[in-house]
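comment on this one:
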Amino acid sequence: MRRLVGGMTACLLLAHVSAGAVEAERYVNVRYGFSICYPAWMEPQGEADNGDGQRFIAKDGGALAVWGQYDVLDGGLGEVFAITRDAVIGVKGQIAYERRTKDWFVISWTEGERVGYEKRTLDGHERIVGFRLSYPQTLKGKYEPIVSQLGKCLDTDLDQQPR
C-alpha cells in the first residue's frame, strides 16, 4: 500500500498486520499520508472530524493517539520539540528519556502513576507525524515492546506528495 488510489473517499483504512509478538491492526491516515500499526486489543475511537488522526483506548488504561499536522509555525521540529517538552514539564511530568535528531524526536516521561512516550517525525513535505502512548506504570512490561514496535511500523511516506 505504498501509493493510495486517487478518488478514495475513505479517510481510514484498517488491515490486519503482524507486529512481532503483538497482534496488530494498521491505521492509515489519507490526509497526511501516514500509517502506523497498533495493538489489536486497543479500540479505535473514530477518526477526528478534521481527518488529522485517531485515538485508541485499551481496557487496561492504555491510550494511543496518532496524528499528522503541518508545520504551520515554520519553526520545524526543534520548535515542536521545545513545546512538547515544556508541556510535559508543565504538567509536573518527570522526563525519563529524550532524544532529538534533525528528522525526529522522542520523549518519555512519568506523571503520577502513568508512563508517557511521544515520537514526532518530520516527513520531508512540511508535515509532522506523531504518536503518543500512555499507560499505567504497573503495565510497563506489557507496553515497552509496543513502544518499540510503534516506532518501527510508523510509515510517514505513503503518498510522497504534500496535500
Q: What stands out?
A: Residues 12-153 form a domain with the Protein Transport Mog1p; Chain A fold (CATH 3.40.1000.10). The longest helix spans residues 76-90. The helical segments are 76-90, 140-153. The first strand starts at residue 12 and ends at 19.
